[in-house]
Write a structure and sequence with these properties.
- By secondary structure, this protein is α+β, with helices and mostly antiparallel strands.
- It has 2 domains: about 30 residues; about 110 residues, no CATH class.
- Helices cover about 30% and strands about 25% of the residues.
- Strands 3, 4, 5 and 8 form a 4-stranded antiparallel beta sheet that branches.
- It starts with a helix and ends with a strand.
């Protein structure tokens, strides 16, 4: 009996560590991801995902008012919805998202216009699928889906 109890305790400890590992990995991933709602002149809203710690900090500074530098969002879009942005048939590719003060006109469009002309995106409309809505502004940080 004395030999069985330590073995059972060891097995329980191993099982607890195995269950804790995925939770720790999930928390680590959450620390490197953040989601932000943004709007444009049409008052439409969308959600973007950031994965770069410096860009996450810049976004948080914009939302809190700690900075007003580079307040607009740009990046390459992917022509399909994302779980965190289900309203639209497109979303920003997280690794391409950045911020700007001034951009060229060819990448400017409102959210509804992009949705209505998504089949044309990547050609003369939004060349390279780069979208930079001039009136975009971050509204708030939102929880991960």
């Amino acid at each position: 009996m004395r030999r069985i109890i330590p073995k059972v305790a060891a097995l329980v400890a191993i099982a607890m560590l195995a269950l804790a590992a995925p939770a720790q990995a999930q928390r680590a991933a959450a620390a490197t991801e953040a989601y932000f709602e943004f709007t444009d002149i049409t008052r439409s809203t969308a959600v973007l995902k950031l994965t770069d710690p410096a860009k996450i900090q810049h976004a948080r500074d914009l939302v809190s008012g700690a900075t007003t530098d580079r307040p607009h969002v740009l990046g390459r879009i992917i022509k399909r919805s994302a779980p965190y942005n289900p309203r639209w048939s497109y979303h920003y590719s997280p690794e391409t998202v950045d911020f700007f003060d001034v951009a060229i006109e060819v990448c400017d469009a409102t959210m509804p216009y992009v949705e209505d002309h998504l089949d044309e995106a990547g050609g003369a409309f939004l060349p390279g699928l780069v979208w930079c809505p001039w009136s975009s502004r971050l509204v708030r940080e939102v929880p991960a889906p």
